Every structure is written in C-alpha cells, then in structure tokens.
Amino acid sequence: MRCSASQFYTLIFLLLSLLLITQVSAKNMVDIHRICSKSPANCLPEINEQLQTTHQNSRVWYDLMQYKFESLFLLQDISELNKVTKSFVNKENLPIPFEISVNIYYAKSLSQEHTLNPIFIKQESKKFINKAKQLLALMNEAYPDPNLLIKLANIQMFIEEYQQAYQLLQTLAVNYKRYPDIVFHLDLYGNLGHLADILNYKKQAITYWLTSLKWAKELANEQQTATVYFNLANSQNTMQEFNNAQQNYLNAIQHAILAKDKIKRIEAQIALAQLWLTLDKKTQAKTLITNIDTVNLPQYVTKKLKQLKTKIKTK
To answer: What is the CA radius of gyration of the chain?
Structure first.
C-alpha cells in the first residue's frame, strides 16, 4: 500500500518523536527507570525532585512526566492525574508518545471532573481514547512494537471492545511467548485476566492472573504483586474458591503495605471483610475494617466501606 506525502511525513515525525522520548543517555534515568518499574510509591517523589532541575519540554522532562502519569494511575490518585494531564490537553506539537499518554490518562481521569455531566464525560473520554487509538495505530505502523499493541488492547477494553481486545492479546501471547521483557508479560497477562473476567471466562481468568503473578514477582514490584493478588482473589471468590480467595486477599494486603499503597490495601481489606461476612465470620469482618483510615480515599472506596459497615450492623 502506497502512502501519500502527508502520511509519509507524519510517519517520519512519529519516528523522530519516538527517538526524542527514548534516547535518554543520562545515567540517572537508568536509576529512575529501575525505581519506577518496581515501586510507583517510591517513583513519585523521585520524579518530582528530578522535574525541579530538568529543563521543561526537554526529552528527559517528557520521559519523567510519563513516569509520573503511570505512577499516579497505579496509585489511584485520579484527582491529581486529572489535574496534571488536563494542562496538556489539546496542546500542539507534543511528542507523539507523550500525546498518546496524555489522551489515555486524561480520558481515564475525567471522572474527577465533578462539574461535568456524566453523559458528557463519557463522550469526552471516548473522544480522547479514540485520538490515542489512532495515534497508536499510526505509530505501530511506523515502528512495530508489541508493547504498543498492549496499549491498543487496553484502549479497546476502555471503550468496551472486549472481544477484539481479547483476541489481540491472545495473538500476542502466542507470537511473543519468548519476548525478553518482564513488564510486557506482566501487562499482557494482567490485561488478559481482566478481559477473561469481563467476558465471564472465569477459569481462564484465574490462569491468566497466576501467570501475571509470576511476572510481577520476577519484576519484584510490590505494588503490582499486590494488585495481581487482589484480582486473582476476586476471580477465585467468584468461582467460590473461598479458601484460596481469603489467602490471596491477605497476600494482597501484605504486599500493598510493603508497596505503601494505602488504597489497594483498603480495597483488599474491604473485599476480604465482605467475604468473611458471607461466610458468617461477622466478628472477623468487623475487626478488619474498624480502624481503616478514611482520609483521602477515592469516593468509590469510601462508598464501598460505608455500605459494608451498614451491612455488618444490620446482619
């Protein structure tokens, strides 16, 4: 297929943008990558410190900001993520990989725009996700990379194209079985686990979560290990594998504490307390949530906790 002159120059710009972002030779960026790949809680203060002494809009600065987006998202600080990404929305001449990240994370953080109509938020989210989807497809054409395809599948999942995303990731699992990138496999099987749960392939979901757990442990990322244990426990709970679910909620709590991930720890505590209540362990459930610190919790977590406390009182 021949491309027009405009398409040709767009592809060249994409390649140059990619080089701008990825060719960072500073030694401290290697250290930052190591820190951020293992702990978003440790990543954020390091990134914020580096940003103070890094020239704005330089290649290193854009790289640092992408680490910041990812860490805020993983730690579920969606309000701050919304504030940070909003400042870049509709800006021109951004490096393409950075623009993709802005569109994705802004779309995922729009729920924090409390003054906007929910229908408008959904429409806006889809608009920015579709922009990211188009840029990703174009970038993958210029510079094929299986990690870009995982991002594309994640976007498809966000706009509820579940079956298409599932088929894409299953193809990646076959074609890139020996791909030498731990994060790639962690993301691949984590997304497959989410999609299998959504599509009600519950046994397969558990298999995917166990595979993702292996890669999270190999990466030695406590936050991701906590998240995978939590999702694995949810799948096991749905399949009525209650003993396994209890143990893995406890594992999630333990690793979330090590990761300094307060929100994931509380989510796991709430889920475990709900399970114990189902199993007529009311005293244990009440004890587990009695001293939970509710300061700076996302609204959906506060709501779940309040509903659970009401349920315990009335049971």
So the answer is: 21
Class of domain 221-315: mainly alpha
Phi then psi for residue 207, to 5 deg, are: -60, -45
CA atoms of 306 and 315, how far apart (whole Å): 14
Give start and end residues of each alpha helix (H) in 182-261.
182-198, 202-219, 222-238, 242-259
Model confidence over 43-66: pLDDT tens digits? Answer: 999 999 999 999 999 999 999 999
Q: What are phi and psi of 167, to 5 degrees?
A: -65, -40
Could you give the 3-state DSSP secondary structure of residue 272? helix
Place of tokens 């623009």: 99
Average pLDDT over residues 152-178: 93
What was the pLDDT predicted at 158? 87
Domain layout of the chain by residue ranges: 1-23+35-144, 221-315
Distance CA 165, CA 152 (A): 8
Burial 2-14 (b: 16+ CB within 10 A, else e): eeeeeeeebbeeb
What is the pTM for the complete model shown? 0.83
Residue 24 has pLDDT above 50, yes or no: no
Which amino acid, residue 211? Answer: T
Cα–Cα distances (Å) from 10 to 4, 135, 221, 306, in that order, read 10, 10, 37, 51
